[in-house]
Amino acid sequence: MSPSEHDLFFLPLGGTGEIGMNMNLYGHDDQWLMVDCGVTFPKPGRVSADGTRHHSGEPDTQMPDPEFIAARKDQLAGLIITHAHEDHIGAVPYLWHKLRCPVYCTRFTAEVLKKKLAEHGLLHQVKIIVPETGERVAIGPFEVEFLALTHSVPDPNALMIRTAAGNVFHTGDWKLDPEPVVGHGYKQETFTRLAQEGVLAMVCDSTNATVAGHSASEGDLYDGLRHYIESAKGRVIVTCFGSNIARLLTLSHVADDTGRYMGLYGRSMINMHQCAKRAGVWPFSAGSVDTGHLGYLPRHEVLAVATGSQGEPHTALRRLAAGTHPDFELEPGDRVIFSARAIPGNEEAIQGIIDQLHSIGVEVITADDAELPIHASGHPAQEELETLYRWVQPEIAIPVHGEEVHMKAHAALAKGCGVPRTLTGRNGDLFMLAPVPGIQRQKVRTGRLGWEKGALVRVV
Description:
This is Ribonuclease J. Helix content is about 25%, strand content about 25%. It contains twelve helices and 23 strands. Strands 7-6-5-3-2-1-20-21 form an eight-stranded mixed beta sheet. Strand 1 and strand 2 form a beta hairpin. The longest helix is centred in the middle third of the chain and has 14 residues, at about 245-260. The radius of gyration is 22 Å and the shape is globular.
């Protein structure tokens, strides 16, 4: 299967019909362009959207099987990573030897990718090209413009993919945040200009398509976080995603303003903080202290920011709750703040760690319990989706990055915004965008690979 100069194809190998593990292909003029290459971390007992029931003994790290494009890697013009979250970037070190193509990503994402490649001994083997936001880059027969949007990680990019057969607007993960705290913002004219040029298809994030209203801004969280940190009598531990550099910066300001010292706990969080410094998105004036000092400070001066918001084993919060962390032990009167919401499937693990904290007298505040906002989603709710559709005005809407319930709600919303046609499908479906729109169902075999004992193994 090879696209002609008149064809424009979209082929998802991961991330359509599920949340996570994103891998997308665009085909035109005998070449393919890959967008994102991510992983997922399955939970035993959970049934994925594709019907796969996961069991103990499976590899902890899984990713899409790139068999289709690996067999055609001489036609693979390049790989674009839209942002630095694991479900978009995490599979690159595991799969690059099957792809062997240049990787395009912006500054913060490049720093995260370099760290991952270095851990696998690949740093000097992979060609990484770092375009500026707003730059147009020729990648084979595709001209790709990197467009600034906002998300819960610095420097996310949407893509305008131009071809002789038509233009595709690929959103990646996004939201419309008027005050993202760090990184670039967004401008309405960026997207209304696309409508004037003409957009054949918009391939768009569906994660929160069932959520009414508008997502909260990162800039709105300072007051809530300060309130719950300032009112605590003992130590405060905030758990959040380490990639959310804006949240870390807000907590750094809260620490300064409340007389506490902030320390970062957890390898992934420390790595992301280092990448933010190297990429120039962490202000020089914002600081943190060596975590080894926190155990010697008065309790009311401690603000620890820890990994483990999803109840994962072996994380800093799990060790603190179990009393096995080497720096200090939690005591009655300390407070743990969950500045994150549960990813579906993690509810039981999170409740388990909350119960463990309660059993030692630690107060727990979650985003659902808090009267003031202490967490903001990184994905667009319905008002944001409607706004972006009004700006871009595509001829075709293609919902991705969601399970069936999210994509159906997204498709209905797009129709309500006046989009003439919607195409919904799942991994392995071939979306033919030009010359005649349509879908060939399950045109390509898809599946999962796992990383186990230093090697890739087939999972399903």
